[in-house]
Amino acid sequence: xxxxxxxxxxxxxxxxxxxxxxxxxxxxxxxxxxxxxxxxxxxxxxxxxxxxxxxxxxxxxxxxxxxxxxxxxxxxxxxxxxxxxxxxxxxxxxxxxxxxxxxxxxxxxxxxxxxxxxxxxxxxxxxxxxxxxxxxxxxxxxxxxxxxxxxxxxxxxxxxxxxxxxxxxxxxxxxxxxxxxxxxxxxxxxxxxxxxxxxxxxxxxxxxxxxxxxxxxxxxxxxxxxxxxxxxxxxxxxxxxxxxxxxxxxxxx
Length: 253
What we know:
- By secondary structure, the protein is of the alpha+beta class.
- Among the domains are: 3-83, no CATH class; 163-248, no CATH class.
- Helix content is 18%, strand content 27%.
- The protein has helices at residues 3-6, 121-149, 173-180, 244-248; strands at 13-16, 27-32, 36-41, 47-51, 55-58, 66-70, 74-77, 80-83, 185-190, 196-202, 207-213, 220-226, 231-234.
- The longest helix has 29 residues, at 121-149.
- The relative contact order is 0.10.
């Protein structure tokens, strides 16, 4: 473990901001994987994995309690933690209350007659003319686009295969090539410490295959991403945990 995380072994600590949907914010350190930290709540039997990329600074003092900062506000649900999204709810309008766009009535005007909008034939004709001009302009734009770009070609979409489901964390580059064939692209990216990511792109299949290891000869399969960089497959890690959170936090390269 990095020296700054060693302090968590000997004392309880609290997360800031606190994890949403967890009532008591006091934790014990359980163990560390190379991408996640397992912590346990002191008042319940809840144990959760926290990705290391979401850990922030640790307070220099531990009175009254050691504080561990989080890069994002997290929410506990479905047995794991997710970035918390706050939603703004619109307050219901009271009956008879004016809308924001309506001016409030002055005191003493409770019995004043309501002002109604009178629709005249001239205004209706004006709206019809404006609608006709808008439709004509849109038709001109479409005709210009067809003449400029040529005939519209039909595009055939095919679903990507799922041959990646047969891969496991024991498969290296050569095992993947035997299963999926040679990739169209083969890229590398250095991660934390000495770990390196290897990315194999299969455009005809519609997904990326991701490997991880200390060097190119020791990289093994950890999962697959679709062409939009969404996780479509991940593998279990030895002991406990999986590579899902690691793939979701992997930036494009």
